[in-house]
Specification:
- The chain has a domain at about 25-60.
- It is about 60% helix and about 0% strand.
- The protein has one helix spanning about 25-60.
């Protein structure tokens, strides 16, 4: 079945990683990687909000 271009992309749920076999050190590295990814996502949000604010200011004139 063909998807219309107007439909939003389908989001897939992330499958939780099995943490059972990981050591404490591996879990700490895993958390550090997740925190880095969260920081990257927050930076992207901030950049998009700044871009949006600039565009809104331009079109309100």
């Amino acid at each position: 079945m063909a998807r219309d271009d107007d439909e939003p992309p389908v989001k897939r749920a992330a499958v939780p990683k099995d943490l059972t076999p990981l050591s404490v050190d591996e879990l700490q590295h895993y958390i550090a990687g997740l925190e880095a990814e969260i920081a990257r996502a927050r930076a992207a949000i901030s950049a998009k909000q700044s871009h949006r604010s600039g565009a809104e200011g331009l079109f309100k004139r």
